[in-house]
Amino acid sequence: MTSTLVVLGAAPAGTEQLRSIVWVLLAVTLGALLSRIHGRLVLPTVVVEIVLGMVIGPEVLDIATVNQFIVFLANSGLAMLFFFAGLEVVEKHVPPREVARGSMGWGISLAIGLALGILLQGTGLDAEWWIVGVALATTALGTLVPILSDAGLLPTPLGRAILGTGVAGEFWPIVFISVFLTSAYGARAEVVLLVVFGMVVALGAWLALRARPPRLVRVLQETVRTTGQTAVRGSIFVLALLVYIAVEAGFEFVLGAFAAGLVVGLLLDSPDGEIVRLRLEGIGFGLLIPFYFVYTGMTFDLDSLLTAEGLALAGLFLALLLVTRGASALLWSREFPRRETLALALFGATGLPLIVAIVDIGTDRGEVSDAVAASIIGAGMISVLVYPFIATRLAAPFAGERPEEPADRGDTEY
After folding, report:
1. Which residue intervals of 306-369 are DSSP H helices?
2. What is the pLDDT of residues 131-141, one digit of tens each?
3. In whole angstroms, what is the distance from residue 277 CA to residue 170 CA?
4. Cα Dmax for the chain
5. Model confidence band, residue 411 (pLDDT cutoffs 50, 70, 90)
6. Which one of 31, 52, 211, 222 has the fewest beta carbons within 10 angstroms of its own beta carbon?
7. Fold of 11-398
């Protein structure tokens, strides 16, 4: 620690690195403030964070540069982003019927997205077709939940359909890219390894749920409000362990992070786990995840986006998001009026965090050019600004609806 402080504080290069970290932390702080500075206009925080990253980065003011410490914290934030995606899958208790239908809809979206990816690559787009396809088939569930809650839509049938669509739009893209981004083995071996990895995760979750020694439970409860924070430390350990196992197996680390979210989500799925989730959110959403999005803005190719070709491509991707994810809403068209079905399509087409992560991974591997990445991310930013805004107004007349109580609730929750 002492040597690190000396390097950061004494050497000129260390001073530059520390200054960049301070600028990023300022952007992280301002991101939360500026997103809610206007009482009637609440902006998605992730969009503000990316824009602030652009401002302090080399494309605009050039007052902060990417260094090894920022990269490490950004990668930690990316891991936490997928970790919370796994937590959300468990926490939202989406009924199995909605999850199954959402998964069917995602399969339709993936087929459309891959077809569009092949078409675009055939016309000269500098990006691998399958990365474009899976990026178009994502949904920003974490971004939508607070919007749905504020609009009073969560407890409605439409809200449950959106959650089913969102869970599928987060879970399946992670599984898909974990297989296709693995290059150490053949495709068949990768699928087998993925199944084995899933079995290991499931076994670990089952053992953790079944084996709860009273002494250990007491320690967890006693330290949750003290400096011990055993449950929080244990959750971070599970995250690190499953990330390590996933990487050792040849998968992208995001699969391990997502699996850790599922395991920890099952363990914390009780009223006693609420305070632990809040502590984890403080670490994730308070520091590491916004750090990742500010870093994304710093490395964003703004010049390419602001060209006529870049803006046209971003507009095209924005429309393709609606076509790709909106098609899954047709599975609910017999249950909802046209306005609600269109609202579901718009909510499903809202995607940014996973788009950023998928495109970022693809860029690092040379599968997507910086210019195309900028247009896809730009389209994702516009989608979270525009699509939910329109969708909530289309769904407003139905916000007061409540789902019918089923006769038997024993098997209705996921």
Report:
1. 308-326, 338-348, 353-364
2. 999 999 999 88
3. 19
4. 69
5. very low
6. 211
7. Na+/H+ antiporter like fold (1.20.1530)
**Which one-letter amino acid corresponds to residue 174?**
I
pLDDT band at residue 44 under the 50/70/90 scheme: confident
Bridge partners, residue 41, by sequence:
38
Residue type, 327: A
Q: Spell out a b/e string for 360-373, using b for 16 or more CB atoms within 10 Å of the CB, else e.
A: bbbbeeebbbbbbb
Angstrom distance (rounded) from CA 254 to CA 243: 7
Mean pLDDT confidence for 196-217: 67
Task: Provide Rg for the chain, Cα atoms.
Answer: 21
For residue 299, give Cα distances in angstroms to 49, 184, 276, 306, 351.
13, 28, 33, 15, 20
If you search the block for the tokens 């053949």, which residue do you land on?
186
Distance CA 70, CA 261 (A): 24
HSE-up (13 A, CA, CB side) for residue 264: 31
The residue-averaged pLDDT of 217-237 equals: 73
Highest mean pLDDT among 67-81, 218-232, 238-252, 257-271: 67-81
> What's at 306, amino acid-wise?
L
